[in-house]
Write a structure and sequence with these properties.
Helix content is 33%, strand content 25%. It has three helices and four strands, in the order H-H-E-E-H-E-E. The strands form two sheets. A two-stranded antiparallel sheet has the order 1-2. A two-stranded antiparallel ribbon has the order 3-4. A hairpin with a 2-residue loop joins strand 3 and strand 4 (81-89).
Length: 100
């Protein structure tokens, strides 16, 4: 069963792992709980600011990549810093290019 809310009392690494699992499920509603209006997300083709803009970006990406599959390879955590090695596969079927 999918967790629809970020885990309470989790470490930063656990929160990031949860977010990547939600990305893999394409669960934008769950992810919106994770973002605030002050959140800045740097994406390959633009920078998004705020929960609504970030959610719109991922909805667009999910629509463009019909078989989106995101896998967390490794997570390293130290204090507030978290490094994630991830792998994304999918077939781009959308009209909008995803890069320069």
């Amino acid at each position: 069963m999918a967790v629809t809310s970020p885990p309470v009392g989790a470490s930063n690494g656990e929160l990031i792992r949860w977010a990547f699992e939600a990305l893999d499920r394409r669960d934008v509603l769950a992810l919106k709980q994770f973002w605030t209006e002050d959140t800045v997300q740097r994406c390959p083709d633009r920078t998004c600011r705020g929960a609504a803009e970030i959610a719109a970006y991922f909805k667009e990406a999910f629509a463009a990549v019909s078989d989106w599959n995101m896998e967390v390879v490794a997570v390293a955590e130290r204090g507030d810093d978290v490094f994630v090695h991830w792998h994304l596969t999918g077939t781009h079927t959308g009209r909008r290019p995803t890069g320069p």
